[in-house]
Amino acid sequence: MPVISAINLSIGYKNSPIVSDINLQLNTGRIICLLGANGAGKTTLMKTLLGRIRPVSGNITYTGTNINEMSAAIDHPSFFPYLSGRENVEVVSAFWGLDVDPETALDGVGINRAAHGRKAKDYSTGMKERLELCLALVPHPRFLFLDEPQNGLDPDGITSLSETLRSYRDKGNCVVISTHLLHEIQGVPDECIVIRHGRAAQFTDLTGVNLADLYQGR
Ligand SMILES: Nc1ncnc2c1ncn2[C@@H]1O[C@H](COP(=O)(O)OP(=O)(O)OP(=O)(O)O)[C@@H](O)[C@H]1O
Fold it and tell me: What is the C-alpha to C-alpha distance for residues 95 and 92, in angstroms, rounded to an integer?
């Protein structure tokens, strides 16, 4: 089974660790939620696992998978603002060498038809989030990393995002999602990684666990 493992990993910038001694496993068929205060290191961890930042020390191993099977919506905005939603999907599909129908892809994340031809910069905050998710899904990644994808979504958008993530997981993929919206994400993840005080702890069984308690270290 494809898996990404971090072994005694320390992450940070310019050789200065922000989170140390990280040992964790990202397995397919799981939704894994990253929790931590502002500046805890969630985005840095995602970027390091994606190979975009060099670890300060330690190792990451990719078993049965590689960087080409990963996709992310991390740097916001991750779309081309002066292109329409439709054109964004076309460009990203061309980059991956895939033949994706833009209308189907945009419909799939709930962007209404009237908006498909409008410049992405003129989308509402929630529509921009939906577009970022749409583009991250274009290559059908085995590992999907989403940095605070719930931000700006209306209640229907949050519900449909949760459904999208579950169905994506059920197809045998791994979703890693960071969020501060604990109430909204409750019940969605199978696992959780909590970053506090420069350390990361992975909880692989969330049965009966309240994420707010986990976040607070209770
Ligand atoms: N390019 C960079 N160079 C140096 N330090 C950085 C860089 N990017 C982030 N940092 C610092 O690394 C720390 C962790 O930032 P990171 O963005 O990973 O946190 P986060 O948990 O994702 O926070 P948030 O919830 O606010 O998004 C912060 O102190 C931040 O200032």
Answer: 5
